[in-house]
TrEMBL record, chains A, B:
Keywords: FAD, Flavoprotein, Oxidoreductase. Its EC number is 1.1.1.-. GO terms for molecular function: FAD binding; oxidoreductase activity. Its cofactor is FAD. This is Oxidoreductase. Signal peptide: none annotated. It comes from the Bacteria. Belongs to the FAD-binding oxidoreductase/transferase type 4 family. GO terms for biological process: respiratory electron transport chain. InterPro entries: FAD-bd_oxidored_4_C, FAD-bd_PCMH, FAD-bd_PCMH-like_sf, FAD-bd_PCMH_sub1, FAD-bd_PCMH_sub2, FAD-linked_Oxase-like_C, FAD-oxidored/transferase_4, Oxid_FAD_bind_N. PANTHER family: D-2-HYDROXYGLUTARATE DEHYDROGENASE, MITOCHONDRIAL. Residues 42-221 form the FAD-binding PCMH-type domain. It is an enzyme of class 1 (oxidoreductase).
Length: 468, 468
């Protein structure tokens, strides 16, 4: 084995002695790949990559890491957007890529046990023949892994219908910093026996332990879906329509909004057009389950009669539905392809959205006249994606400097309106400095005390979320 | 003020100085009422009762308790079945009875903010005019309080449809042992900013702090419901029918089972009868939403044709549905009225239920021949209520002694089949000694370290769940 910079010799000898020969890699391409997630802000500098094949191997590795004070970064599909899986300080990356096994589907209990390296989409395909699904679903499902989804409590476009990942996890196997293996909750729906330790690890971004296996809760594949696209005059209209959708003759699966500015970028990039007669400042996409055709038509008619929408369409078949979804799902890519977006992922109580967006607009008009803001999001769960686009007359550096200031102003507004600085992406390294906008000093103190209790040597993804 | 035994003089003087005149009570009737929950095993011995009117008063009180080392028992509606709210060691009981305010319903966000002393049923009535409900629902809803529901992560008969209380809590205000007020998560659906501290307090039975306010997540009142009653030959039949119900033409709201032995007790007590032509050993009650009449009839026909049920009925109107529900809901009362039941509330992975019940029966036949076991439960979520009835030829004392041994045997089986010794009632004082059957030594150690981090003086409901 090549000597590894940064890792203690006795640790390497112990790994060589106690774990398989191909357990560690220092291949430069591996380190470049496994040292980072989808963010580009921090330079990856992992010391090595570990590729365990079992919970037991993870446990043996972490016991050695603890003994030799080797910090680790747990690594899933690395699709994160908060630099939670970046090894920027010479950590050992522990990838779950070799742990992708999926057990038989328990149809009666509607559960499946998988290793944490199983890819989200592979889980969907594995359970689909039984008419079941794991309703954790988002654009990166082809790469993201179950363990990463759970460690970041992943969201997505179906949260209004199914909730976050947290709700779809029955049991966890977790290895803590000392190498202790915790079997949490098994496959039980109900288990009121003291503190639910599962909940600590869900969303803790690998700072308390490594999730190695999980028992997932499944649900029935939804019935036939319908997709609407509506034009509304303003954000108040988006919210008024949301109120109607809440009581519509169907179950809302997704309620997304985006602005004409987003569509202008999408047209430049993809040459696709909103299939409505005239452009509008705001659009709403609604996906629903279980609507009867006549009831849906009557509902649309009533919206027009009451002036709640200025235009609208209902997809007549799956291909049309996919075209409508492409108007929403192509936005993020188009913003990056046609300019330099600075992204924020905030959430607000739904009733505060209008006031927040109005002040946000005023703030940018006053301090950054001419800057373009592309707004879209999962309004049904209060999640707003704010994309500040680089003006042509600013250099990249000047833009990044000013968006840094802008973030403080945005997050001050988020705080004022009782929102969160990170709805679903998490904190990682990227939002760490801003955490006090969403969490009080007392909360941070408790988080630190829990971190110290579970990881006294601060070896688990150190420096992510909080410093201890 | 009368001198209070057990409370330090300087503490009483400080309370008198800093809190309202009617803040403390030592009235004997108050102490008898507020010192206990629905369990009868431990003698209540509270030193006094505190009745705060606000979060601020709770905070000031707990600061004084911390300063003067006064242990407290938080008290909600006291409908608990695990002695989690019993003040057996001279604690100060802190009742939320004066904190019952409910805020305006946020229809757009489908949330409502309430004080923790609000009664469950009052919340239902408060939000019903908006077509909304808080789907935390069980027999004691007329007395149980929101704070107690959350502190015990209450279950009930609709868990298969809606999940546990945990899923219906957006925000919490919690006062910790030091008097620190934590505002956790506000009214946000999505907030991925580090450890979700709400989850620590949900289900921790008042051992980490006092929940004083909550923002509840609401959902639409369900559409018209249908209720079936079926006879099946055995437990395997109960589970086979469950598999059919999972894929039936409707949404399952409740899937309950009970045995003929339960019905025999119900007939002795209430003289009500199962409206089926011949008695059967096992019955299943299923409540469903959104079934079309023809689809329901076709489904029933198919069950008969395939021999999955030996008899069955579908309630034709609300009164009939209520009669069917009474066959299930009257069981617990009838067991107590016609004998002495020793109750256990366990859960199992659904696919383990048959093996578990079969071994349970053998175990009792071998060790306690002639003892009667009345089984019923929310099979859809794996929750089994095991009621061991006192044989006529045993004294009460002998029976309690032998059920204590029986509990060890039952919980050993629960452990063998990967179940939980407490599905929904919690641990409190009653199940504390049995906790190692469900939680590993490593889990208990982490629970203790969290307890010490949040309550270093062990003043919050001391002795409940675990000793530290």
């Amino acid at each position: 084995m090549t000597p590894l910079t940064g890792l203690p010799g006795p640790f390497l000898e112990a790994v060589q002695r106690e774990l398989p020969a191909d357990f560690l890699s220092t291949d430069a391409a591996d380190l470049a790949t496994f040292g980072r997630d989808w963010t580009k802000v921090h330079e990856p500098r992992p010391s090595a990559l570990a590729l365990p094949r079992s919970t037991d191997e993870v446990s043996r590795l972490l016991r050695l890491c603890s003994e030799h004070r080797v910090p680790v970064v747990p690594s899933g599909g690395r699709t994160g957007l908060a630099a939670g899986a970046v090894a920027a300080r010479g950590e050992l990356v522990v990838s779950l890529d070799r742990m992708r096994k999926m057990g038989p589907v328990d149809v009666l209990g509607a559960t499946v046990r998988v290793e944490a390296g199983a890819v989200t989409e592979a889980v969907h395909q594995h359970v689909a023949p039984h008419g079941l699904t794991w309703p954790v679903d988002f654009a990166s499902k082809g790469s993201s892994q179950v363990g990463g989804n759970i460690a970041t409590n992943a969201g997505g476009v179906k949260v209004i219908r199914y909730g976050l990942t947290r709700q779809w996890v029955l049991g966890l196997t977790v290895v803590t910093a000392s190498g202790t293996v915790l079997e949490l909750n098994g496959a039980l729906e109900k288990n009121n026996t003291g503190i639910d330790l599962r909940q600590l690890f869900i969303g803790s971004e690998g700072t308390l332990g490594i999730i190695t296996e999980a028992t997932l809760k499944l649900t029935r594949v939804p019935e036939a879906l319908n997709v609407f696209l509506f034009a509304v005059p303003d954000l108040a209209g988006v919210l008024a329509l949301f109120r109607e959708a809440r009581t519509g003759p169907f179950v809302v699966m997704a309620y997304e909004f985006f602005t004409e500015k987003c569509q202008a970028r999408l047209r430049r990039h993809r040459n696709v057009r909103v299939p409505l007669s005239a452009p509008s400042d705001y659009y709403v996409l609604i996906e629903v389950e279980r609507g009867e055709p006549e009831a849906l038509e009557a509902w649309i008619t009533s919206l027009f009669e009451r002036g709640l929408v200025t235009d609208g369409t209902l997809a007549q078949h799956g291909a049309q539905a996919a075209e409508l979804w492409a108007l929403r799902e192509g936005i993020s890519e188009s913003l990056s392809a046609t300019g330099l977006p600075h992204k924020n992922d905030v959430s607000l109580p739904i009733q505060e959205l209008e006031g927040f967006c109005s002040e946000l607009e005023s703030l940018f008009e006053a301090r950054y006249p001419g800057w373009e803001i592309a707004l879209f999001g999962h309004i049904g769960d209060g999640n707003l994606h704010i994309n500040v686009m680089k003006p042509d007359d600013l250099t990249r550096e000047e833009f990044l400097k000013r968006t840094h200031e802008a973030d403080h102003a945005i997050f001050s507004l988020v705080k004022k309106y009782h929102g969160s600085i990170s709805a679903e992406h998490g904190i990682g390294l990227l939002k760490k400095d801003y955490l006090p906008y969403s969490r009080s000093a007392e909360e941070l103190a408790i988080m630190r005390s829990i971190k110290r209790a579970l990881d006294p040597l601060n070896l688990m993804n150190p420096g992510k979320i909080i410093d201890v």
